[in-house]
Amino acid sequence: xxxxxxxxxxxxxxxxxxxxxxxxxxxxxxxxxxxxxxxxxxxxxxxxxxxxxxxxxxxxxxxxxxxxxxxxxxxxxxxxxxxxxxxxxxxxxxxxxxxxxxxxxxxxxxxxxxxxxxxxxxxxxxxxxxxxxxxxxxxxxxxxxxxxxxxxxxxxxxxxxxxxxxxxxxxxxxxxxxxxxxxxxxxxxxxxxxxxxxxxxxxxxxxxxxxxxxxxxxxxxxxxxxxxxxxxxxxxxxxxxxxxxxxxxxxxxxxxxxxxxxxxxxxxxxxxxxxxxxxxxxxxxxxxxxxxxxxxxxxxxxxxxxxxxxxxxxxxxxxxxxxxxxxxxxxxxxxxxxxxxxxxxxxxxxxxxxxxxxxxxxxxxxxxxxxxxxxxxxxxxxxxxxxxxxxxxxxxxxxxxxxxxxxxxxxxxxxxxxxxxxxxxxxxxxxxxxxxxxxxxxxxxxxxxxxxxxxxxxxxxxxxxxxxxxxxxxxxxxxxxxxxxxxxxxxxxxxxxxxxxxxxxxxxxxxxxxxxxxxxxxxxxxxxxxxxxxxxxxxxxxxxxxxxxxxxxxxxxxxxxxxxxxxxxxxxxxxxxxxxxxxxxxxxxxxxxxxxxxxxxxxxxxxxxxxxxxxxxxxxxxxxxxxxxxxxxxxxxxxxxxxxxxxxxxxxxxxxxxxxxxxxxxxxxxxxxxxxxxxxxxxxxxxxxxxxxxxxxxxxxxxxxxxxxxxxxxxxxxxxxxxxxxxxxxxxxxxxxxxxxxxxxxxxxxxxxxxxxxxxxxxxxxxxxxxxxxxxxxxxxxxxxxxxxxxxxxxxxxxxxxxxxxxxxxxxxxxxxxxxxxxxxxxxxxxxxxxxxxxxxxxxxxxxxxxxxxxxxxxxxxxxxxxxxxxxxxxxxxxxxxxxxxxxxxxxxxxxxxxxxxxxxxxxxxxxxxxxxxxxxxxxxxxxxxxxxxxxxxxxxxxxxxxxxxxxxxxxxxxxxxxxxxxxxxxxxxxxxxxxxxxxxxxxxxxxxxxxxxxxxxxxxxxxxxxxxxxxxxxxxxxxxxxxxxxxxxxxxxxxxx
Length: 1042
Known about the structure:
Elements: H1 22-37, H2 41-54, H3 61-74, H4 78-91, H5 95-115, H6 121-140, H7 147-160, H8 164-177, H9 184-204, H10 208-226, H11 231-247, H12 251-258, H13 264-283, H14 290-308, H15 312-326, H16 330-343, H17 349-363, H18 366-379, H19 386-400, H20 404-417, H21 421-424, H22 426-437, H23 441-457, H24 464-480, H25 484-494, H26 501-517, H27 521-534, H28 541-554, H29 558-571, H30 576-591, H31 595-608, H32 615-628, H33 632-649, H34 660-684, H35 692-715, H36 718-738, H37 743-756, H38 761-771, H39 773-777, H40 781-798, H41 804-816, H42 820-833, H43 845-861, H44 865-878, H45 883-898, H46 911-920, H47 926-946, H48 964-978, H49 983-999, H50 1003-1016, H51 1023-1032
């Protein structure tokens, strides 16, 4: 705060005109100055007052009033300080003295208002009276160095009155006036606070987009201050950021932030350390610069303010406990509240003890909660209602844990003890819910009936509002129990004038929904329309109008439904319901494949709600439509716009994090863009066979796809990142199999990602685990297993979510290394973490099928065939469509072939029948079909070497049997013909076919096969052996003579 320097503290001493001893005047003034300089403000005020009375005509009277006013101000006697400063204004002639008086009158009035109870009439009256005086200060003292500070004070009071727009304008003026930048962070802090409060108003008015934008601006401002150079303001900014995090449900961020809040002593030390260099500068100066003295005084005053105010770290600690409580970390919350109860100020001790009890209650630890309630009631006998509240919370916790009978007992106990009115209305509903969820719907209705009868008979005393709420819940329960006529009768009765307007409104809407449930669709649509016209200002108006459209659509009245939604969009433009209406319209047209109408209505939505996050979904739906029509350019443009809008709405996600669902949706646009680029590359053809220009385009598409996935991995939530990484694995394998990249090249994007995410250990573990799938699929199992095992350990430490496909590969790598029992818990993890109901469209059924096959494979390879067959039987029964059924058949075929059981029949198939079944199965993967062809052909070679026959070689009556080696070559060539996108298997097949032809002395055929192999599959693991075979072949035969 600013103090003017009037010599040492008094104007030059002038002897009074009356005949008084000069030594008396000098002694009196000396005592005042000495008392003030030594901060004995009570004494200084008494001496100054005495001086004024003793020497009423003294020329030093302004100085006496000045010191009297300053002393009163320092003592916090705001009314007395204002009176003294106003006297000073009357007697002083110097402009700077008048300015100081005006300045401190305003500060005193503001402090007086701040001392009044929050939201009291007195506080509002004082603020209202002070604001015009603040507005007058810049006009009276336009050149004042305190102008920025006065404007800052004016804005603070405007904010307290809720005048946020005016406060924002005042803060802009304060920023311009604060040329020395002394108050820039204070101004920023208030601007952030004003934005946050304005956001709450906007959200309360259902202006979601504007509200979220204001919250984002507030978060950015607070974050800048929290990282600034003012420790006291940084503390308050961190508290505000924690509040924003808590309100948005970002509990881990709030907890981390609250843990950094320093205590008062630590904060004072930080402020003292910041002030020390400035003090050192003036220590040896005889006449320090006034500006430096003013800065020291301001800093010292801030230190005094911190010392005199409540310790904000206590508030932060309580908020930390609340954050743990809200995030259901009850043990951590209990530790915090116990700390507060032990070391905190006495006034919050009862609250802290209550919170400890609640942590037990919310955990359902009833005995501990009950024991502490008894102790609490003895310690704080004047604190009522805790026992009933604990019964209520324990009952609710038991209800959530599906312990219905115990929940009913505790909730009834809370009801008998008389719980807080805020919860009284909920108890009958919770009791009835417990009955319904335990399959006792009739008991629920009986309970409602009995409860309402007791109220009617006067046996229970509840408020009229509570009675009507219970009647409303009873009606809803009747409808839920399929007693729709009875429920509708109850609702109809509640719509009569005998009930409160609020209940009539609620019952009217529920009655409309009941009509819809009973399939009386025309009546329901009319009821929704009646509700809308009867209650045009209802908070449920939008729901009613939307439901009317939904009902009309359900009644096959499509055009009427669309018209109803269009009316809603127009009537409630700017509200969430208006946006819902637009979405219903364009989604209907999208479903009907009416592209032009869909796009037109999307454009209307974008114009009406240009900055709403839900527009991201509109752009993504647009992209999907274009992608379906194979218009990749338009689809990419739509996906790009979706992500651009996300960036515009949340320019700095670290400062103002977006909702997780919104963020994930935006990053899914990048995923979809990657899918399109990948499709473009595949459409060009096999990379190895493309011309140079085609190869360049292929690489460009792949690199763009990788970049889209990179951004998505770094931005999407941890729960959704594994499927994105799986796509990156798939893309890498395409590069590898096409010959465009080596394993090392394919691993590089993963390593770059891990480096970029180095401060996020969970994500790093997910990235490193996914990358191991690249060498695994490339056949480098030793490297893959090492990478898998290292990353898996890290993932267990960080509790990272992993993709089931990568987990399956890891388990298979363990199996291949002879570590079957280590693979078992990995397959069991898949079963646990990816549950799926059999017979549904849940994609996690594929994970369940893979896990069952893997568990069966472990036992099969360990020669525990009966145990393996149990898993395979469950696999075949529950997931007959799965390719894993065919993989199980492949295992069986291999085992039968090794035992020499080549031929069987349909009833008892042997190796050949099983392989043919796989090859012909529509459910087998291409890889499994290719492997079966390879195994079939290899077994034919075995037949030839052992000179065995087989029905597979029969050509029919009267025809000689096929040569097994010729048939084997035919199968090997089919692998190359049908599955050239599997270069490893195709390469192996061509090599084995070439070897057969060489043994048959058909060297030209062998040369063609090997040449084709080297041209099409140069990166295959058999390419070196194929080159050696080609060199060993004799020269090509001369072409036949013409």
